[in-house]
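Sequence in, structure out.
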Amino acid sequence: MEEDQTIAVVDKSYKRAIELAKARVREQRPNVPGKSTPGIRSMPQLNGGAHLTGLPSIHGMREWLGELGHSAEDINRLNVIHVAGTKGKGSTCAFIESFLRTHGKRTGFPSKTGLYTSPHLIYPEERIRINFQPLSRDLFAKYFFEVDDVLSKGEGRRPRYLQLYFIFALHAFIREGVDAAIIETHHGGEYDSTNIVQKPIVTCVTTLGLDHVEQLGSSLESIAWHKAGIFKPGARAVAAPAVSEATSMLQNRAVEKAVALEFAERDLALPEGAIQIKPDVLRTNCSVAISAARAFLEETTGEKPSPLSDTDIVESIRQWSWPGRFQIEVEGQNIWYLDGAHNDIALTAAAGWFLSHAQSSASPKILIFAQISHVRKGDSVVECLARALQGKVDHVIFTTYRRNEDSPEGTSEKEFNIDELQKVYVETWKQIHPATEILVQRTIESALDAARRIGESGDGGMQTLITGSQHLVGPALALIRPPPAEEVV
């Protein structure tokens, strides 16, 4: 009698793919000064320049893509628009995608768009979109394991979380036959893992400000140097208007790389009154996107130019959406205002947007805030937001990134003493607005419930701004507007 043979069943499910990707997150950023890396340019001495640590994120990308059989030319054939910046990268990418998709419906080109952004708001597949639709979970698992099965068997250093996701995105775009790929940098540009793209069609720099200063420097000159690192010879370059310090550096880097740089002014084709481009910062992002889309079409449509029409622009703006950015959700008498702003420049814009809508209402004004990060000093961020809200918020609720009591602590929360961090936030706010009523909640769900109770105590509900991080806004949105049961991981 033959012995029973047990065949091992390999789990290649969507859920397992997410688990394996999360396992690539490093526990903390290295603090050892970075060494000169062959083939990667050293950063010049700049005013307020950064002190780089560890290996640049771009290191290893070419080799890992090679293990998968993807050449530089395979990536170039995707027709890439590469987008860097401090503020508005995601919404600008989404605008560009919408313009090109609308143009493609009318003319046949592009026939299929790819969009890569990070972080995701609620579900990981949001990072990789085809014709703006997130990858289906079946395709997500299929393409992830095509990548992981190869890279997990390799020798030496293996890609970390964001490096793996970008390799995964490029692999999906190549397999799907994308003919226009809009790619958002993770942060920075020169040393970013997305900067492996050698011949983009267009490069784009959105609004600049001070953020990620430990990695990118404490001056706009240094920030601009890093962001303009995506400029490539032969590619068109578009940038949002900037202050003189940043403008000079962007221009210098354009000359260095023999690139024609265009600063995008407010586009006259923007429809008046369109709610999709309110507040004003979205009009800026949309104008940058129009310039980038026009440059792309001029470079790719060859002898039969097919420009972006005014009708394309109107239709693209009408269909555009970017969840988690200036988003309003109505729940009975309660109105939630959600924005994933996380740095001074974005939080100031989010505060102004909130006040423009909620200030005239007699119902209580509430802020729900969380930011748990080594990247920026939380007390200065809270101070900025407190001043931007001008004392017109009645209640502040500080919380964490935990969705509910059943959710595990995330990597960020494990690295911090949350009680001490929130104590600093409370003290910072009280120094500016001592009369504000402040609550501290351990989960997002309990913070939302606390806001609802405040609304119930009056006659007309409440108006609540939720901001500070995508890691707060995403779970909050999923709790306010629960997704269908089949979408829950």
